[in-house]
Amino acid sequence: MNFQLTQEQEMLVEAVRSFVAKELLPHEEAVDRADAVSPELAAQIRGKAIAAGFYAFNMPEEVGGGGLDYLSQALIERELSKVSWALHVFVARPSKILMACKDEQINDYLLPCVQGEKIDCFALTEPGAGSDANAIKTRAVRQGDDFVINGSKHFISHAGHADFAIVFAVTDTYEHNGRKRNAVTALLVDRGTPGMTIRRGPKCVSNRGYHTYELFFDDCRVPASKVLGEVGKGWEVANAWLTAGRVMVAANCVGQAQRALDLSLQWAADRKQFGQAIGSYQGVSFKLADMATQIRAAEMLTLHTAWKMDQGSMTDGEAGMAKLFASEVLGKVADEAVQIFGGMGLMDEGPVERIWRNARIERIWEGTSEIQRHIIARELLRPLLR
Ligand SMILES: Cc1cc2nc3c(=O)[nH]c(=O)nc-3n(C[C@H](O)[C@H](O)[C@H](O)COP(=O)(O)OP(=O)(O)OC[C@H]3O[C@@H](n4cnc5c(N)ncnc54)[C@H](O)[C@@H]3O)c2cc1C
Question: Acyl-CoA dehydrogenase/oxidase C-terminal domain location, by residue (predicted)?
């Protein structure tokens, strides 16, 4: 395997790095304190990301996206995540499952999302169905040419900014190995559709300014033309994208961890106690060595997994390994960064406390660490168990 990045990839990394430093990082502290991104700032970031050619970099070229391979996408994610999600979310990566759009959905949803004219949100999780996504209770019942949706969702990121939600609802049930299973359908539901209410969810300690919402459906009627993919095949449209998303989360974790290490190195060199830089004491320098080693391992695993995805040989378990390992490394590195900063690491005047708070969500969303371990173990044992 050739570990050398192409010249194009090197240039891309440099361009995103300077975009983050110039357009995003200067706003991070204020956004975190206000727990909000103003519409003007959101529009400004979106406009600059479009002008720089970063917007929708995850989407194929044939629909106007960046057309990048997964390895290049992971490199961009690594750089973007050196600032809070609250800001880099506006360098939008539309849900890849919108590639399942057909007929008028292409002009109504897919292309506007790629062009920065519309924003989507992904509405799967419910109060009673988190890790066990197949247990969702939201139902969509066919009535003539329409589906009528009833139920609720929570933890739906960015729904306050979204023009439409990709809503997962049960449309049927079937028997599988003697157990009743839900047939799930993905539906495109526009903001303002009668019967759908959106409400801000509880405050989250991670990524202040990046909010989750609750969605309520009360006889919400959408035409059957709003089915994304096929009726009853919601998991088919979602799964490929969710698995790739885990590798991108891993890349986000590597970027955040690297930022924590860079800050810690500088602090360890500058901060003096007992007449010397604290980095000269092994109690601190060995922490730095462990942090750097763990980050390097997480980065190698993540980039290798992205490369495998490009080769078409990545398995679900491998995506799970990258997400599991990188998010757990980030947790350890962020915690050690606080330790190296001492009391200042917990004060809201510096970025370390933010990185520490923001790191916590990464072991939970896009499948918890326990669920990743389950996926990995199932794949390892599958050939051996009968
Ligand atoms: C900030 C934020 C943003 C989010 N954004 C979105 C979004 O945009 N769209 C969306 O659809 N969802 C979103 N989510 C939901 C997210 O994907 C879920 O929170 C996650 O899948 C875990 O579900 P849960 O929180 O209900 O935890 P639970 O599933 O209730 O799990 C609780 C604990 O039990 C453990 N556990 C559960 N089952 C098992 C098992 N079989 N074996 C071992 N341990 C187990 C879990 O690992 C966890 O530690 C978001 C969540 C947050 C917090």
Answer: 232-381
Whole-angstrom Cα Rg for the chain: 22
DSSP 84: -
Distances in whole angstroms, Cα of residue 370 to Cα of each of 105, 133, 315, 383: 36, 14, 18, 21
Record the tokens describing residue 45, joined without a space.
Answer: 């970031």
Residue with tokens 């050939």: 383
Provide the residue range defining the domain that includes 188.
Answer: 120-232
- How far from chain centre, in Å, is Cα 73? 13
**100-149, pLDDT tens digit by residue?**
999 999 999 999 999 999 999 999 999 999 999 999 999 999 999 999 99
What average pLDDT does the structure give for the chain? 97
Top mutation candidate among 365, 373, 374 for ligand 1, by most atoms within 8 Å of CB = 365
**Residue identifier of the C-alpha nearest atom 35 of ligand 1:** 370
Model pLDDT for residues 62-84, shown as the tens digit of each residue: 999 999 999 999 999 999 999 99
* H-only helix segments in 35-105: 39-52, 70-80, 85-88, 104-105
pLDDT in tens, 138-159: 999 999 999 999 999 999 999 9
Distance (Å) from CA 320 to ligand 1 centroid: 15
Q: 55-81 burial by CB neighbour count: b if 16+ within 10 A, else e? A: bbbbbeeebebbebbbbbbbbbbbbbb
How many Å lie between the centroid of ligand 1 and the Cα of residue 361? 10
Cross-strand bridge partners of residue 198: 215
Closest CA to 194 of 213, 167, 221: 221
Contact 247, 305 (CB under 8 A): yes
Domain end: 232, 262, 291, which one? 232
Enclosing H/E stretch for 138: none
- Residues 158 and 286 both lie in one domain: no
The vertex-101 CA angle with 99 and 106, nearest 5°, equals 105
Residue 326 in domain: yes
Residues whose CB falls within 8 Å of the CB of residue 352, separated by 6 or more in sequence, listed in order: 260, 263, 264, 334, 337, 338, 341, 344, 345
Predicted TM-score (pTM) above 0.85: yes
Residue finishing a domain among 47, 82, 114: 114
